[in-house]
What we know:
Layout: H1 3-30, H2 36-57, H3 80-87, H4 91-109, H5 125-147, H6 159-169
Helix pairs in contact: 1-2, 1-5, 1-6, 2-4, 3-5
Amino acid sequence: MNHNTMTLIGIQQIILDECLRALFYTRKYQTLDKTDFNKTCNACFTKTLIIQWCQIFGSRKEQVHWSKLQLPTGYPKFGQEIILSSNGLSAAEWKSYHNKMTTIRNKFFAHFDLDQLRGNIPCFEPALSVLLAYRQYLIDIIEHSNKQGQMVNRNFFDNDVLIEKIKEELAW
């Protein structure tokens, strides 16, 4: 695997991990008292989650979008089949969900549209499912590269290990 591919995987790893952490922190802050501080933290984590999720799964124009990962022949490909199987949505349901996520990002978080005074935040379960599926895909790519003697080390924790680490952080 070339240097640019490994750099992209490294950047995607950082974004995926921050996105996953923001999702779990959002869930935590939604259960707390509705103080101004807690509402502000929840809003910040929600914004981080949506913006970062859209960097990888939003527009194909994004430099770190999953479709930008160009792997050598023989590597499995990530695509719509994995996306749909990860969350159990049909292609039409995924398109609708994807549109909701990119719209809230574009009209409420990244840019403020005065006609969109209140953001309608979608459920995050499909976002979590595809995030974990792509993260596992990258882990599998790294393991495949290592088996071929390329010795790629990206310090990726297994999905379950990272989720447990985040839950430990939130045990306050």
